[in-house]
Amino acid sequence: MLLLGSSRDVNLAPAIVLEKNAVLFWMSSFCYLLLGVKRLPHVVISGDAPGIDLSQDLVPISYKDDAYRIKTEDIYIERQGNKALISTIVIEEGHPQTFYILVTKNCTENHLTIRLDPSTDPIKTCGVKRSIAVVAEDLIGRKPNLAIERHNIQDYLDSTVSL
To answer: Within 10 Å of residue 30's Cβ, how many Cβ atoms?
Structure first.
């Protein structure tokens, strides 16, 4: 086990390197264990992508669980209507994270991709991953002709809509 120095030494919160791909960060009293996450959490939905009107089919969502609260607020649609940014806040153990979820419509391949916007970089906690799942589940609930094609958030999707 390697102990890194103070935050002045590494420009991070104090950390302990547990193994090659796992680092434990302390952020006040809230601890996160990141296990070498290489890809951003995402969901790909197949179906009638051209029939989806992001300005009508994406709505603000409020979700509460024992572990976290998720709220999507403002939704920004690009002029062509093929991309949407969803302003999202997740509160876990009293710690809020604000970020954007990006929904991209690809009419040529007939699918939608829901993922974190690369311009925001929240810590990939359970609540952040669940927020992507909640947006996907809400969209599938509104449009029953859609189905999940692939994803990398296995433990966060409702079993009724997952693969």
So the answer is: 13
